[in-house]
Amino acid sequence: MLDLGFVRDNLSVVEEKLRQRGMDPADVLKDFREVDTRRRQVITDAETLKAQRNRVSEHIAKLKKTGQNAEPQITETKKLREEIQEREKAVAEYEARLQEILAGLPNIPNDSVPVGKSADDNVEVRRWGAPPKLDFTPKPHWELGEQLGVLDLERAAKLSGARFAVYWDLGARLERALANFMLDLHTREHGYTEVLTPYMVNSDSMYGTGNLPKFAADLFRVPHGEKELWLIPTAEVPVTNLYRDETLDASRLPVSLTAYTPCFRSEAGSYGKDVRGIIRQHQFQKVELVKFSAPEQSYDQLEKLTHDAEEVLQKLGLHYRVVALCTADIGFSAAKTYDIEVWLPGQQLFREISSCSNFESFQARRANIRYRPEGKNKTEFVHTLNGSGLAIGRTWVAIVENYQQADGSVLIPEALRLYMGTDRITPKKF
User: Fold this and answer.
1) Which of 56, 82, 243, 266 has the lowest CB atom count within 10 Å?
2) How far apart are CA 80 and CA 86, in angstroms?
3) DSSP-derived 3-state class of residue 201
């Protein structure tokens, strides 16, 4: 969430940044200026009435002390009290309206974010590796998975419907191996602390990371008595909210956490997109990287987090590129985002496998996550960052498509062989 004072004092900047996101400021800001002006006027009126009431109360005390009649003044204070209560009620209503507007405002793109009108204006930053040299026509993962007997979409549909998957034997083991490999890399070499969180969270947690109220349609809601819980769309939600309503000591920053969880997404509005295979699922697994940083360090930490995610692909020998998302393509809560896109020879395209973002203080303000700078008494909001390190299913896809062989088998990358207990996946039926 953006700071009310910042929006008020920099309204023209906010409007321009909204235009850069491809939004109409009038649709997003709505009646912000009018409501904010009225709120401040009503606050002034209430303070004036309170001052008047105090003067009358002092006069009443003097009258009573000298034995004089104070009934007119007492009647006046009752009227003033009613008028003050009316103003305070109006202030509360205006503040609720302002909070509603602010909750729907996206983050301000950092000045380093490329300005663009669509994903076509994203800027490639770097590439690593090269596509595999195959002397045969590569197959997409959904064909390979079925032929190998390791990916079963038909039985998954029987169990749960479309956009679910069943993995068999070495397909299931590859998923588990990838998770263990990623967690080991991030904890042993990159300095992250592993955390295991709940897979269902309350509405406050969803609000804290910016998923609610705007993206309720993208989530799975679970009725729970008189309240409701939500299946997490990513570990970003519970991990970021671990420190909700807390103040961190500056000496602890940056805090770097990693978590492996299932992720649940309704994929509202995505029907007709990526219907083949396991690219876009209602349930998938992911290793997440989350950081809490002092503001002056957060963009250095974004670069580090992105490189930590990249190293997974490097150790697996997978060709990829890093893309800086433009203003029209970054997410609602993000101030800057790098997408890491892995090459898929079976589909002849790059596919996003991780989004690494700096949210600056946007999430921290919503979740009230603060830190106390050294030598200062006043607390400030931390900057939060996160990224996939990586999405397990899409890494599974990348390995199957990039390491496929002419005989239909799939080689296992060297870095995973200890986890897999084999160097190859060969056909097997279940």
Assistant:
1) 82
2) 10
3) strand
- Identify the band that residue 375 occupies on the pLDDT scale cut at 50, 70 and 90: confident
Report the alpha-carbon distance of residue 258 to residue 388 in Å, rounded. 9
Domain limits of the chain? 4-103, 119-425
Is 280 a catalytic site residue?
Answer: yes
Give the mean model confidence (pLDDT) for residues 333-352: 98
Q: Which of 259, 255, 245, 160 is nearest to 204 (CA)?
A: 245
Question: Is 87 a known active-site residue?
Answer: no
**For 290-335, what is each residue's pLDDT tens digit?**
999 999 999 999 999 999 999 999 999 999 999 999 999 999 999 9
Domain 119-425 bears CATH identifier 3.40.640.10: no
Question: Would you call 352 a catalytic residue per the annotation?
Answer: yes
Specify whether the CB–CB gap between 253 and 293 falls below 8 A: yes
Superfamily for the 4-103 domain: Serine-tRNA synthetase, tRNA binding domain (1.10.287.40)
Q: Is residue 100 among the annotated active site residues?
A: no
Please, are residues 416 and 422 in contact by the beta-carbon 8 Å criterion?
Answer: no
Q: CA dist 198 to 206, 256, 287, Å?
A: 13, 18, 14
pLDDT of residue 260: 98
pLDDT, one tens digit per residue, over 246-269 is 999 999 999 999 999 999 999 866
C-alpha atoms less than 13 angstroms from C-alpha of 397 in its C-beta half-sphere: 31
- Annotation says 126 is catalytic: no
Please name the residues in contact with 164: beta carbons below 8 A apart, sequence gap of 6 or more: 153, 156, 157, 281, 282, 283
Peptide bond into 325 cis (omega under 30): no
CA distance 23 to 5: 21
Q: Given this model, what pLDDT does residue 270 score?
A: 65
Which of the following is catalytic: 333, 355, 357, 361? 355
**Which residue reads 């920099």 in tokens?**
10
